[in-house]
């Protein structure tokens, strides 16, 4: 691995001496390494080197073009903010292909801390602000410039259709073991598809969204609560604001980790929900439409059901999409998401009330 990483770093014109590398176990899709170089002045400098999963991102060049456009726009629009900085090769590209067709990119490492299940509401509120702000900075970005790198990424109805076809095909004979999960998901199909149906009817606007608002995609100052930068721009595409809001809640306000087998304890931590809603709405309340505000809480449920569908579908199809550590990993993830979705359904009125509260509070502030 060392030789491969060294070559990638050389292609991106990293100077000095290769010291060490470490694979970072983050993300379910790409491979990520932190590489350390000793520079001329004897100091150490870290870089993040990533191999993009081209099974998931079929057109990785388009992914990088999207990122170039978005980061350039953000630097121009909000020069005081941190933005990811991808390094260029000699021929001014932000990526290289290796001899095996592997697709690589490199960016400077931020000395920072990430959180998966923060217990401190201040951190969650600040993540809400960071994602809300991200949304606002890109408010006037011309979405038609972006390639839809994963078509229908958060089209919940299409996700259901694909899963139902895969259940019918059942190539590995696994369906018989997951009937309970299937029954639950299908029973909430229409409710979970409410937002995409509203979008199709023109009742919700399409915005430029992040589409992967897990809290570990926000880097915080080392050991602290201040958000530094939003990362993982691979899926920045046109989307629904409620799905960005919802995906963040799905991950950061769950009582247990996404990979947890402790399904019984999965559920919304309302303190964290409130904290995120507060931060997010502080930044976005002024521009959200009535319908958007009214569907933010439902968006949490919708994206959680969608994620259940995606994990279950991958399980049925032999787990080729999400990285797994053991054969039932995607089934465990399915059960955990389903338990969270059930708890969200119960708490929906309370979740809606909290959104309304912060909408009223921040909408008319100057
Ligand atoms: C994947 O790789 P990561 O962790 O950034 C996935 C998201 C899922 C998430 C679930 C391109 O994100 O959509 O919500 O796993 N990314 C892609 O943890 O499918
Ligand atoms: Mg991602």
How would you concisely characterize the structure shown here?
By secondary structure, the protein is an alpha+beta fold. It is 46% helix and 13% strand. The site of 2-acetamido-2-deoxy-1-O-phosphono-alpha-D-glucopyranose has 9 residues, from loops.
Class computed from helices, strands and strand pairing: alpha+beta
The CATH architecture of the largest domain is Alpha-Beta Complex
CATH class of the largest domain: Alpha Beta
- Main β-sheet: number of strands, strand sense, barrel status? 5 strands, antiparallel
Kindly report the average pLDDT value. Answer: 95
Total DSSP helices: 11
Q: What oligomeric assembly is this protein in?
A: single chain
Provide the CATH superfamily of the largest domain: Aminoglycoside phosphotransferase (APH), C-terminal lobe
> How do the SSEs run, as a string of H and E?
HEEEHEEEHHHHHEEEEHHHH
CATH fold label of the largest domain:
Aminoglycoside 3'-phosphotransferase, Chain: A, domain 2
The side-by-side strand order for the widest beta sheet comes to: 1-2-3-5-4
Number of domains: 2
